[in-house]
Amino acid sequence: MLEGEGRLMSKILVVDDDRNIVEMLQFLLKKEGYMVCIARDGKAGLEMAHKEQPDLIILDVMMPEMDGFSVSGVLFKDPVMRRIPILVLTAKGNAREIFDLVPNVGIYMEKPFESEILLNNVRKLLTPQTKPA
């Protein structure tokens, strides 16, 4: 998280090859005060994740170079990167069961999505989890 305008700004990496989805997410997230980084395929997403160290990754499943399954698996194997929560956002409706088995995937959403539900899920994943004493 970065300090900005008196509050902490979360950095979100969007990894998706659909230009319209990327533009919509970028608009929604920036409007809410988040910093947004973009990668257009899975391989670039991994590189950007290592470079930018985002607080959250919004990840598509079907992409060129490397799909979302592979990206989430590589991230989970890295002890530094596995702490980053992932929100899977995809048109591939039958993939939920596979991602339910991936510990770093916090939320799975299908396209098309409702903006307010997506933003609520982003907030939920960015809120530190408190552990009972």
Task: Name the descriptors.
5 helices, two-stranded antiparallel ribbon, 133 residues, globular, 5-stranded parallel β-sheet, alpha/beta
Describe this structure in words.
The chain is an alpha/beta fold. It is built from five helices and seven strands; from the N terminus they run βββαβαβαβαβα. It has helices at 19-31, 42-52, 68-77, 96-99, 115-126, and strands spanning 2-4, 7-9, 11-15, 35-39, 56-59, 86-90, 105-110. It has a five-stranded parallel β-sheet, sandwiched between helices. Strands 1-2 form a two-stranded antiparallel sheet. Strand 1 and strand 2 form a beta hairpin. Helix 2 packs parallel to helix 3 (68-77). The longest helix is centred in the N-terminal third of the chain and has 13 residues, at 19-31. The radius of gyration is 14 Å and the shape is globular. The protein starts with a strand and ends in a 7-residue tail after the last helix. The relative contact order is 0.16. The model is unreliable at 3-7 (pLDDT under 50).
